[in-house]
Amino acid sequence: MEAKSAVRRSTGATARVSVNPGAVRDVALTLFAERGYHGTALSQIAKSLQIQTPSLYNHMSSKQDLLGAILQDTTDRVLSEYEDAIEAVDDVAERLEVATYVYALRHATHPREAVIVNRDVTALEEPARSAVYANRRKHADSVRGLIQEGIDSGEFAVDNATVAAFAILEMCVSIARWFDPGGLIPAEGVARQHAQFALRIVSAHVAG
Amino acid sequence: MEAKSAVRRSTGATARVSVNPGAVRDVALTLFAERGYHGTALSQIAKSLQIQTPSLYNHMSSKQDLLGAILQDTTDRVLSEYEDAIEAVDDVAERLEVATYVYALRHATHPREAVIVNRDVTALEEPARSAVYANRRKHADSVRGLIQEGIDSGEFAVDNATVAAFAILEMCVSIARWFDPGGLIPAEGVARQHAQFALRIVSAHVAG
DNA sequence: CCTACCGATCGGTAGG
DNA sequence: CCTACCGATCGGTAGG
Q1: pTM above the 0.85 mark?
Q2: What phi and psi values does residue A41 have, to the nearest 5 degrees?
Q3: What is the distance in angstroms measured between the alpha-carbon CA of A99 and the sugar C1' of D16?
Q4: Is the CB of B63 under 7 A from strand C?
Q5: Whole-number pLDDT of residue A13
Q6: Which of A103, A187, B5, B202 has its CA 20 to 30 A from that of A177?
């Protein structure tokens, strides 16, 4: 009969490092993104970390909290990144360009977070869900305002600011679903092209 | 003591019409779109139809089959609609325009199907999932080819046909997530604007 | 971090 | 279309 530790060592699983809240969240990001919140069992997260399911509760308070923290942090970051980006420039076309660039880049570099925000926000219970929606709306409303400003000044030519804002934002969101970080185009290249698409969508007259 | 039928009548629920496979699918479309495949229980579908869960099996063979039928039919229709649309015109810019128009219009008029295809295809088991992916790829590859054709002929000016194709298709897909059929803009208006956005993204020189 | 265990609910079947 | 029921699995707790 073998000792328990020897049996465990013989399974060939990679050595466990240290389980902490960050590690739990990282695995949750991967599995939620792959299978969705409802499609992921805590037992799968635990297995990936090579611990038993109840041990997860040393690093989180509930499955809902895990989802809530991911969605809140992600949308918080999107919002602050957006505000930093437009603060740096004044021209309305340039603002739309940098806003699109950072939003696209974030979706290319953080696909798991993006997929979960867009697929599983409905799985989040209130009041956390409303807080996430509020972040999203704040961002979308501001981009819409940017476009309306460009229309009013005659720099942009587009039928409807709301439709254009959704088109621009959503083509960026989708990057998280198709972009291959190991492919030929770097994340910055995809972001740059989307920023150009945004200017073209609003028909901005840009130099160069 | 009241008779069973009287009790049922007294609940105030709307009169049940006739349950058939189409009614089951319609309710599944609504609930899957709202909560996702894994987030929807068959008991909820049954409750919405005012029958017991086991009775659902008179109208479907399994939950997986229900999802598979929805996804296969939806992607089949997208593909045939696309082929019909581009057949009707010859010019490459016009082809991109009509292809975008019908794709956008479909997502505005069939939001439930669109949301489910894009969120729950990963919940579909093989080999059905691969068949759905094949339909999607056929459509995306053809649109990418259209754009490449325009680049080669000098009509379009875009860095990368694949990136442009994804941007155009995905901004249309997202319509299903934000479009309000009861709002100010008709579905056709949203589709028309997206067709214009597509031409602008590829920088096509269009008359008018 | 574990074992032992909980009530609830899942998709689905048997047999009318 | 129903009642009665199945094994499996869910998120989570007790108590070390």
Answers
A1: yes
A2: -95, 145
A3: 53
A4: yes
A5: 44
A6: B202
